[in-house]
Design brief:
alpha+beta, Butyryl-Coa Dehydrogenase, subunit A, domain 1, Butyryl-CoA Dehydrogenase, subunit A, domain 2, Butyryl-CoA Dehydrogenase, subunit A, domain 3, four-stranded mixed beta sheet, four-stranded antiparallel beta sheet, 10 strands, about 45% helix, globular
Length: about 400
C-alpha cells in the first residue's frame, strides 16, 4: 500500500496551506482558528465559523470526493483527508458531518428528491446538521433507542427524547433515528428522518460537559415528519446509521490535531529547564516522547488505511473503528503525559494568569474524555473489532 502523495496532491496541500495562511489576516481569524481550545474547534457553531465554511465552499473544497452527478469532481478521498488534516492543525472547523457523513449516506441510500434538496446546500455550506442518535437509556447500545415514530396521514409523528445532540442549538436540520416498528427485532425497526430544527414540536435544552463543550437534550412533542423526509427505506435505518458512524469516525477524528499537540510537547521539552538542564535531555522524558511519536505514526497509518478503503468504494468499517480508537486514546495519553510532567501548575485553568500554555493541557485532559465517547465509545469500537475483524462471538 503506497501512501506517497502524487504531484497533484502535493500541489493541493500547498494550496490549502497558502489559503489558511491568508485567512490569518481575516477579521474573523481569532474566532475561526482556536488551537488553544479543543471544544471551540471542529464545528461551524458561530456566524464566523459558518462564513469560513462558505469560503471553503467557494474554493470548491466541500464534497470533492462526491461523484460528479452529485456535484463533486471525482477527487479521491485523500484530498479531503489533506484538507481536514490542515484544518485540524490550525484549530479550524472541519469539513464535518454534512460532507463526510450525511452527504455520503444520502448519496448511497436516499431517493432523488432528498439528494437534490440537500446535497447542493451541503456543498455550499448553507446548512448544518445535528445528529439524533443517543437517548437517556440508549447510548452505547444505540439499537435500544425508544424515540417512537407513529404512522399518521402523509408521514410520521415522533414523540420522545434525544440526548447529547451537540449541534442542535445552531443546526438547521436534524438527522434522527426513531423506532417505527416496535414489534420488530431491535436492529430491524429503526428509520432515519430529516427534521427541520425550526419545528415547533422540538425543544432544545443545553447540557454542559466536563470539557466545556455544549451539547443538548432534545424533546419531541408530536413532531410530524412528512414521508418525503424519510431517508432510504422504512425500518432499514440501522444499516444507514452504521455506515454514517463509520464515516464519522474518520471525518471528525484527525491526525492533524495530534501533530499540533506533538509540536507543543516538543517545544515544552526543548525550552523548559529543570535542575540546570533541558527536559529534552532527560532520558525518561526522551523515552516518553519517542513512545508518543511512535503512537502518532501508527495513528497516521491507520487513518490512511481508512482513506484507502473509502477510495476503493467501500465503507471503512473495521478501519474506521481502529482509527477512532487509536486517535482518541492517543489524545488522552498525550494529555496524561503532559500533566504528569508539568506537575501541580499543569492543572491551572486558562482563566488563571499563571497557567502553563494558557491552560491548554488541563483543558485537553478534560475534553479528551468526551472524544472516547462520541461516535461510539472505545468499548464499542473494541466490540466491533472483536466481532467483525477477529470473528469472536458477539
Amino acid at each position: 500500500m503506497d501512501f506517497t502523495f502524487t504531484d497533484d496532491e502535493r500541489r493541493f496541500d500547498t494550496e490549502v496551506v497558502a489559503f489558511l495562511d491568508s485567512e490569518r489576516d481575516h477579521p474573523d481569524a481569532a474566532v475561526v482558528f482556536a488551537p488553544q481550545r479543543e471544544a471551540d474547534a471542529q464545528l461551524a457553531s458561530t456566524p464566523e465559523h459558518k462564513e469560513f465554511m462558505r469560503r471553503l465552499a467557494d474554493k470548491g473544497w466541500l464534497g470533492m470526493s462526491w461523484p460528479e452527478e452529485f456535484g463533486g469532481d471525482g477527487h479521491e478521498g485523500l484530498y479531503e483527508y489533506i484538507l481536514n488534516e490542515r484544518l485540524s492543525q490550525r484549530g479550524a472547523p472541519l469539513i464535518g458531518k454534512g460532507v463526510g457523513m450525511i452527504g455520503k449516506t444520502l448519496i448511497r441510500h436516499a431517493d432523488e428528491q432528498l439528494q437534490k434538496r440537500f446535497l447542493p446546500e451541503i456543498r455550499t455550506a448553507s446548512i448544518d446538521f445535528a445528529l439524533g442518535y443517543s437517548e437517556p437509556d440508549s447510548g452505547s447500545d444505540l439499537a435500544s433507542l425508544k424515540l417512537r415514530a407513529t404512522r399518521v396521514e402523509g408521514g410520521w409523528a415522533l414523540n420522545g427524547q434525544k440526548r447529547f445532540s451537540t449541534s442542535a442549538h445552531f443546526a438547521e436540520w436534524y438527522w434522527v433515528a426513531a423506532r417505527t416498528d416496535p414489534d420488530a427485532p431491535k436492529h430491524k425497526g429503526i428509520t432515519l428522518f430529516l427534521i427541520d430544527m425550526a419545528d415547533p414540536g422540538l425543544t432544545v435544552l443545553e447540557q454542559k460537559t466536563m470539557g466545556d463543550e455544549r451539547t443538548n437534550e432534545v424533546f419531541f412533542d408530536d413532531v410530524v415528519v412528512p414521508d418525503e423526509n424519510v431517508v432510504g427505506e422504512v425500518n432499514s435505518g440501522w444499516t444507514y446509521i452504521c455506515e454514517a458512524l463509520d464515516y464519522e469516525r474518520f471525518t471528525i477524528y484527525t491526525v492533524g490535531a495530534l501533530e499540533s499537540k506533538m509540536a507543543r510537547i516538543m517545544e515544552w521539552a526543548t525550552t523548559t529547564e529543570r535542575r540546570g538542564r533541558r527536559m529534552s535531555e532527560d532520558p525518561q522524558v526522551r523515552a516518553g516522547i519517542v513512545a508518543l511519536a511512535t503512537d502518532l505514526e501508527v495513528a497516521r497509518m491507520l487513518t490512511l488505511r481508512v482513506i484507502d478503503e473509502a477510495a476503493r468504494g467501500g465503507v471503512p468499517s473495521n478501519e474506521a473503528s481502529m482509527c477512532k480508537l487509536t486517535l482518541t486514546r492517543l489524545h488522552q495519553k498525550m494529555a496524561d503525559w503532559m500533566l504528569e510532567h508539568l506537575g501541580p501548575s499543569g492543572v491551572l485553568t486558562h482563566e488563571d494568569p499563571d497557567a502553563i500554555d494558557d491552560g491548554f493541557w488541563e483543558h485537553s485532559y478534560r475534553f479528551t474524555v468526551l472524544e472516547t465517547i462520541g461516535g461510539g465509545s472505545s468499548e464499542i469500537q473494541k466490540n466491533i473489532l472483536s466481532r467483525r475483524a477477529l470473528g469472536l462471538p458477539g
